[in-house]
Amino acid sequence: MKSLVVSGYKSTELGIFKENDPRVAFIKAAIEKRLTSFIEQGLEWVIITGQLGVEMWTAEVVLDLKENHDINSALVPPFENQEKRWPDPLKEKYQELTFIVDFFQPLYKGDYKGPYQFQAKNKWLVEKSDGCIILMDEDNPGSNKYLYDIAKEKEGYQIDLITPMDLEDIVEEIRMKDPDYWG
After folding, report:
1. Matching InterPro entries, A to Z (predicted)?
2. pTM score > 0.85 for this model?
């Protein structure tokens, strides 16, 4: 696998409204664990659209992984100025990211025009990648459902879900690394 899309819930879908929420560290650890495994198997590109939540956290994880691994990142938003209505600190983070990633190009020129842009984005992501990692609970897929459904239609496309159970495992792994856990 050479290219992989990473997506998942928006931060608001997870009830996370602050970047310093402790749950973010667990989510990032789960993403890092999966990405590291794929990188060790030859992964070259991680593709995100830059939506708030899992995708922005993935961008941060990939930037950290670049310090020790040969991995590239692509930011392909569905349209220009997707961050226009975001809070200023998140806007700044996104805009900085557009300069740091290895590839940046919106799919559509101009601002949001309609839901067809999101549909086209999901189709494009699946067409241009070999697989995906989606942080999702299949019983409550949220907006992830659309990408997941398209990914399931593509023959031979690898779908790797990070489930609530996987997150619980990461939390436990991190807790067990704390010496106070055993004391």
Report:
1. YspA
2. yes
How does DSSP assign 129-157, residue by residue?
Answer: -SEEEEE-BTTB-TTHHHHHHHHHHSTT-
CA distance 106 to 93: 17
Q: In 19-139, which residue ranges form alpha helices assigned H by DSSP? A: 22-40, 54-65, 88-100, 116-127
Handedness of CA 35, 64, 94, 45 (dihedral sign): negative
Give the pLDDT confidence of 30-86 residue by residue, as tens digits: 999 999 999 999 999 999 999 999 999 999 999 999 999 999 999 999 999 999 999
In degrees and rounded to multiples of 5, residue 66 shows phi and psi of -60, -25
Compute the half-sphere exposure of residue 10: CA atoms within 13 Å on the CB side of its CA: 11
Residue 55: the pLDDT is 98
Planar angle of CA 148, 49, 85, nearest 5 degrees: 115
Domains contained in the chain, CATH given: 3-182 (3.40.50.450)
| Residue whose entry in the numeric block shows the structure tokens 């019983």 | 139
Residue from 139, 140, 141, 164 nearest 151 by CA: 141
Beta bridge partner(s), residue 132: 5, 159
Give 180's pLDDT tier (boundaries 50, 70, 90). confident
